[in-house]
Design brief:
About 55% of the residues lie in helices and about 5% in strands. The protein is mostly helical.
């Protein structure tokens, strides 16, 4: 099994699942190849956690930096490295996926994807980058549950250094680490600053996909669930973002690899979810805007 490990929540949970599967099958853990691929936004904290976790778990660890390869690619396509746009970010994600796929070919293995249910709903992934693998083990697990499961493993399954690393991963800001670091290795990119709090989006996802509630009903329920935490305007802002992204990013879900259904909500095209990629969110977003106006 080949997996990219970043020191973030998703790749950590996926690695723990693979290790558990190998143990149940009485397979040697060195058959798991964990690859850390530091790039322009990788921090010492996340890289150190990824490497330490792999070593503690007894899997095969490889470190393959992507900086030189991505810079060569920028020169080939004529992209200015100082322009930190979507090309700059996605080139790194796709380089990492190429490495994983080619190593899988090299050793006769399978690439295990790390993207979760929340990212699939919001399309927070690079098409033909981290969006792709040979099996997406986290495909049915929302981000809030990913965080909870890693914390649970730290408290209930592991001890010592491994538990400490898992606790630190839980405490690390969620970020794709695709933008250069600021002064003093400060993160310049935090996912929830861009797309909104995952606890809100996971709540919206459940109410919308599981129960097909309309925007007004979802807003009503969210006001009760997050009373005193988020103001009405904040809830409506991110609800509008959810609908826009959920509809616009269906094309990525239509081309997702297989993955298990874990809870009562799934977005895999091989499971419960059927949606045309050209579906339009206009009716839903119009209702959200009417709620904001009132």
């Amino acid at each position: 099994m080949i997996i990219g490990v970043s020191g973030g929540l998703d790749s950590t949970l996926a690695l723990l699942v693979i290790v558990r599967a190998f143990d149940m099958l009485a397979l040697a853990r060195d058959g798991i190849v964990a690859i850390t691929m530091p790039g322009f936004g990788t921090t010492a904290r996340t890289r150190g956690n990824a490497e330490q976790l792999a070593l503690d778990l007894g899997v095969t660890l490889r470190t393959i930096p992507i900086g030189e390869s991505v810079r060569l690619h920028f020169r080939e396509i004529g992209h200015d490295e100082q322009v930190h746009d979507v090309t700059y970010e996605n080139a790194q994600a796709r380089e990492r996926t190429q490495i994983l796929m080619d190593v899988a070919n090299q050793v006769g293995g399978l690439v295990v994807g790390t993207g979760d249910l929340s990212e699939a709903a919001l399309g927070w992934m690079t098409f033909n980058g981290d969006h792709m693998s040979m099996y997406h083990v986290n495909a049915g697990v929302p981000k809030t549950l990913v965080r909870y499961l890693v914390a649970w493993c730290a408290d209930e399954v592991f001890t010592g250094v491994t538990a400490d690393v898992l606790h630190d991963i839980v405490a690390t800001p969620i970020t794709p680490e695709l933008l250069p670091l600021g002064e003093g290795e400060q993160l310049e990119q935090k996912t929830e600053d861009t797309i909104g709090p995952y606890e809100l989006h996971d709540f919206f996802l459940f109410q919308i996909v599981r129960y097909q509630f309309a925007p007004a009903k979802v807003f009503f329920l969210a006001r009760q669930a997050f009373a005193g935490i988020y103001a009405d305007e904040v809830i409506l802002r991110w609800l509008g973002v959810f609908y826009r992204r959920f509809f616009a990013q269906q094309f990525k879900r239509s081309a997702m690899p297989d993955g298990p259904k874990v809870g009562s909500v799934a977005l895999s095209p091989r499971g419960d979810w059927r949606m045309p990629s050209d579906a339009v969110s206009a009716l839903w977003t119009a209702e959200v805007e009417s709620l904001r106006a009132n």
